[in-house]
Amino acid sequence: MNLSRTRYSLAPWARIAGLAVCALLTLGPVIWTISTSLRTPAESFDLPPKIIPTDPTMESYRGVFDQIDVWLLALNSTLVTALIAVGQMITAGLAGYAFARLEFRFKKPLFGLVLATMMVPLQVTIVPVFLVLKSMGLTDTLLGLIIPAFPTAFGTFLMRQYFLGMPKDLGEAAMLDGCGPWRIFRSVYAPLAAPGLAIVGVLAFNYHWNEFFRPLILETSGQNYTLPLGLVSLQGNLGTGSISVVLAGVVLSMIPAVVVFVVGQRPLREGITSAGVNR
Amino acid sequence: MTNTQIPAVRLKQPAAPPAAPPRPSARDRGTRLLATLFLAPTIVGIVVFTVVPIAGSVVLSLFHWNVIDDPSFAGAANYGEVFGDSTVLVSFRNTLVFMVFAVALQLLIALALALAVNGRMPVWLRSVFRSAFFFPLVLSAASISVVMKYLFNQDFGMVNWLLGLVGIAPVPWLTSENAAMATVILVYVWQQFGFSFLLFVGGLNNIPKEIHEAASLDGATGLRKHLNITLPLLSPTLLVASVVGIINALQVFEQPYVLTNGGPGDATRTVVMVIYESAFEQLRFGEASAVGVLLFVLIMAVTALQFRLSRRFVHYQ
Amino acid sequence: MTDSHLTRRTLLRYGAYGAGAAALAGTAASWDRLTGADIPGRDDGSLVVATLGPAYGPEAIRTLTEGFKQVHPDIKLRINAVQAVDWSDFFAKILTQIAAGTAPDLVYVATEGVQLFAQRLGVPLDRWVKRDAEELREYFADVHPSLVESMMYEGSLYQLPVEFNAADMYLNTQVLKRAGADFPAADWTRDDFTALLRDMKQSSGSQFTPYFWTNRLWGGVVPWLFANDTNLLTESKAPGGTWLWDSFYPADRRQGRGGGFRWTTPQATDARVEEAYDYLASLIQEGLCTRPEGGNGQNLIGVFSTGRVGVTPAGGFWAGGLHLAGMKADGFDVQYFPRWRSQRMQYGAAGYALLRTSKKQEEAWEFIKYAARRDTLTRLFTTNQTTPARRSMLTADRYRESGPAHWQVFYDTLDKFPDTGPIPAPPQVAEVEQVLLKHTGTALASRRAVAPALRRMQSDLEKAMERDV
User: Fold this and answer.
1) Do the Cβ atoms of B282 and C430 come within 8 Å?
2) Any CB–CB contact under 8 A between A233 and chain C?
3) Which residue among B35, B54, B190 places its CB closest to the CB of A125?
4) Cα(B35)–Cα(A104) distance, integer angstroms
5) What digits encode the pLDDT tens for the residues C239-286?
6) CA distances for C40 relative to C45, C48, C52, C103, C148, angstroms
7) Measured between CB atoms, which of C16, C80, C298 is closest to A243?
8) pLDDT for the residue numbered B70
9) Touching check for A57 and chain C: CB below 8 Å?
10) Which residues does chain A have within 8 Å of residue C297's beta carbon, measured at their own beta carbons?
11) Which residues of chain C are within 8 Å of residue A134 when distances are taken between CB atoms?
12) pLDDT given at position C7
């Protein structure tokens, strides 16, 4: 007993030092990526690596812009991710509210159905999805990437938790005032949902900005490629691309995701948190 | 407030008959109409882009189809092929091994770090740590695997160079059957633990301070306090973290695809890789669909099992 | 309190309206982008050509399109650079398009896919080649018959090769100098090669491995099998093809040519195959060679150009790659693959295949001819990112800036070793390749692992070859 108490009181600085080591391990590969993208290809394999390049060069970044149409790729990626994010906020907000605060038949099986979609690997359904999109005339369009991504199991789950977390009395009070279900949603709960929706948006952005497999299979015209797909070009014919340029591409594509992460960090943290909490 | 346990617990239970009110009032009708409207986008989307495709996959799994010729009916032949194919069987074993270790490691690291971050420290420092641990999650799995492939290269990678500094001989991280799976798991966990970490941080924040204080008064300290008090209180969060973790781990694709391409041998070939290879590289869409259907069944079964077990181990406040 | 609550709520509401309006406006403004309606040549009856993305940047596509427009202003052309990491990825995507009924007219196909496309999807070019024989005489005179033969299947020609890459040995001159070794002679043997690796190893530090290679069909184990005078699958030649040889090649050059290669019976347990694996396993054990890593060889350029590797097999495409990576022209050089039982070498070639489903076959043929023209290829291959199939394009001028000094090796691999052949790529290639890569990984874990792994490879290959693609 005594021993463990001693250990516990020793903890603070040891604990913080341990955390610092872990943080370094976590960020290490990212730091290496950034620093290598700033070095010349010839230096990229130097060991010990020069973490601070002695002679930083933006050459690799120029290479990225020379080799691929970054602006078009970024425009496509932005359109796709932004519209998916907005779409998921709408579908998840509405469905989450229905599951949390409305009573209707088949509520549980329907909710089960929504959650079960999380368990379906993309690779299993991609061919039939392709055929469905074809029948809609949406293959090789950005819309073909966007529309199927509107329903979101995790987003719906999050929003349900979020609405459940709001005091029930608010709605009951409004009901006593004679408000109908729509008024209760619109005037009482919906205005409180903004932070929850922000989480859904940030998560959607995060996931779909980096998405590779669906665009790979669904988009065939170069003009419809998204950034992750375009970056493949940097690897060069038979892998002859320069590693620095490849990594510069990785860093460039990282920037928007990081910005969204920084801006959305707080709601994201709170949102993910709420998903795991039992109220 | 018990109506909001982790929802999917009820997934496997028969749907409770709707509590039909004796006289449907205007309000109820309004509610139902609203529910229908609110659910329509999600449910229609799921039906068109998931349910119908799954049905399509099941149908496809009963046919031989190579894209070029018309499909021909095969009955259960594809399933027979699959069960006789050692690569497929190995891939299921690999995927399960991967799942067990990746999820366990991910939860352990996340939990340890969450407890550590929850301790006393300056606010700014805590937020630095939280951001750092979450950061890998915003990166693309494919890109980061390319980076990791460089770092883990046996002859020229930085990891072996660092180990060399402390006198450890070069490890064939990606090219030996034993190490390759461990490396894939490491890279996966590195990217994914942030998610569980955040869940745990949130879960810990929600445990009332009084409980800890009371426990301390009773003389519980350190590890014992965590084991006996924190962990049970955190169990609902653990359940969500492990459910999401397992569902994701069973679908792992990018990391082994980029890092090892399934090798050496079949050492890191996962089920989803087999689906991709047999469908898109070998044009055996029927067999690929059969494997897909089996994987789907496996995921459902594992998830159901988890919830069944959770009834015994998860404590709700 | 109520006031601030209200304002915040109002703000939120207007914020939401604003965001909604912006989203709507953005969607409306970019509608053409979202539906792909702004892509020129889409659904307007253009001739659609699918090429491998990483090999064809925006610049190359512009060059090809504009050049074609000048020759054939009446044919609308759309070039679609399909993004893929390697050939099997690329074929996967093309097949998905075919499944969806949106097949291109022409597909850029490498040796890996020649027979798969020829057997299931392609149209033989024979009748057009015969019709336009006069026009093509100059082309065939400039292209080695072996390359042409590799594009034939069962007596018919399916593609006009425009580029190829043979597996030659690249050597880092710095590392050679460090080891005090001379540049190897053209007829160097496998033992010379081993001795050179040992010298390199001795003269270098710990962060160095003399021989590096990537585990893939092209340039992996297969060149060693060729050098040891064997192959993964038994190789024979289909009858036929005389219609082509007789009209385009003089007697001495058409000798022994047939109607294309046939790769049939797996022979992974053949003694010579085992010998080749055994040799590689011994190199690994001695620390002279890296364990084979899966993937597309991306690590390679970096480690070679910085002198962490001394020797590696690569083709003409590497001259451009090393130049891009900042390597000086005299920093490296190239020699033939070393001789063992034979000095037969291995290559892969590529050209455009015409799909059966195409409704613009005449136009497509015009494009095939255009793409094989000397001026087209000269404009396209400016950076030595590959070896042109036309001998006349390999000039001292072309390699002056990038190197290597022995650039003649690239084409002489064909000219001086007329039995040099394509990588084995039957229609079942995807599975054959997977089986090869998979068991090569385990076979080279140790010398003891070779035999059992090859036995498993043999039985998997047999299964793969039985399958009707």
Assistant:
1) yes
2) yes
3) B54
4) 7
5) 999 999 999 999 988 888 999 999 999 999 999 999 999 999 999 999
6) 11, 12, 20, 17, 34
7) C298
8) 84
9) no
10) 238-239
11) 100-102
12) 66
Mean pLDDT by 10 residues, chain C (469 residues): 56 73 78 81 82 79 92 92 80 80 90 92 96 96 96 96 96 94 95 96 87 88 96 95 95 91 96 96 92 68 85 92 86 96 95 94 97 94 91 94 94 94 93 92 89 95 85
Strand locations in C337-468 (E)? 346-354, 387-388, 421-422
Number of folded domains in chain B? 1
User: Does the domain formed by A63-275 have CATH 2.60.260.20?
Assistant: no
The CATH architecture that domain C47-164+349-393 belongs to is 3-Layer(aba) Sandwich (3.40)
- Subunits next to A (3 or more Cβ pairs <8 Å) are B, C
Question: Is residue B202 a part of any domain in this protein?
Answer: yes
Q: For chain C, which residues make up each domain, given as ranges?
A: 47-164+349-393, 168-232+267-344+428-466
Q: Report the chain A residue with the minimal C-alpha distance to residue B193.
A: A26
Strands B63-64 and B72-73: antiparallel
Q: Phi and psi dihedrals of B208, rounded to 5?
A: -60, 140
pTM comes to 0.87
Q: What is the pLDDT of residue B317?
A: 53
Q: Nearest CA to CA, how far is A257 from chain B (Å)?
A: 6
Query: Edge-to-edge strand order for the sheet containing C309-314?
Result: C209-211, C309-314, C168-172, C332-335
ipTM, interface predicted TM-score of the complex: 0.85
Residue range(s) occupied by CATH 1.10.3720.10 in chain A: 63-275
- Residues of B in Cβ contact (< 8 Å) with A104: 18, 31-32, 35-36
Task: Verify whether the Cβ–Cβ distance B139 to A257 is below 8 Å.
Answer: yes
Token output for A278: 């039992």
| Domain span at B103 | 79-313
Query: Per the domain annotation, does B182 fall within a domain?
Result: yes
Domain with residue B143: its CATH number is 1.10.3720.10
A246-to-A64, C53, C90 alpha-carbon distances in Å: 8, 15, 20
Let me know if residue B55 belongs to a domain: no
Q: Which residues of B touch A231 (CB under 8 A)?
A: 143
Q: Using DSSP, state whether C209 is helix, strand or coil.
A: strand
Confidence tier at B16 by pLDDT (50, 70, 90): very low
Whether residue B22 is predicted with pLDDT greater than 80 in this model: the reply is: no
Contact A237 C386 (CB under 8 A): yes
Nearest CA in chain A to C40: A223
| Interface residue B265 vs chain C (CB under 8 A) | yes
Percentage of chain B modeled with pLDDT above 70: 87
Is residue C331 within 8 A of residue C403, CB to CB? The reply is yes
Q: Which DSSP letter does residue B14 get? A: P
Say if residues C265 and B150 touch (Cβ distance below 8 Å). no
Q: Mind listing the pLDDT tens digit for each residue in C160-214?
A: 999 999 999 999 999 999 999 999 999 999 999 999 999 999 998 777 889 988 8
Contact present, C105 and C80 (Cβ < 8 Å) = no
Judge: A185–B296 Cβ closer than 8 Å, yes or no: no
**CA–CA distance from C170 to each of A40, C114, C295, C300 (Å)?**
22, 27, 19, 11
Closest Cα partner for C294 from B279, B256, A241? B256
Q: A194 to chain C: which residues are within 8 Å by CB?
A: 12, 16
Q: How far is C295 from chain B (nearest CA, A)?
A: 7
Q: What is the pLDDT of residue C210?
A: 94
For C168-232+267-344+428-466, CATH number out of 3.30.870.10, 2.60.120.260, 3.40.190.10, 3.30.70.330 equals 3.40.190.10
Chains with 3+ CB–CB pairs under 8 A to B are A, C
Q: Tell whether B77 lies on the interface with C, counting CB pairs under 8 A.
A: no
- pLDDT for A204-217, tens place per residue? 988 899 898 888 88
Residue A239 has its nearest CB partner, among C83, C298, C305, at C298
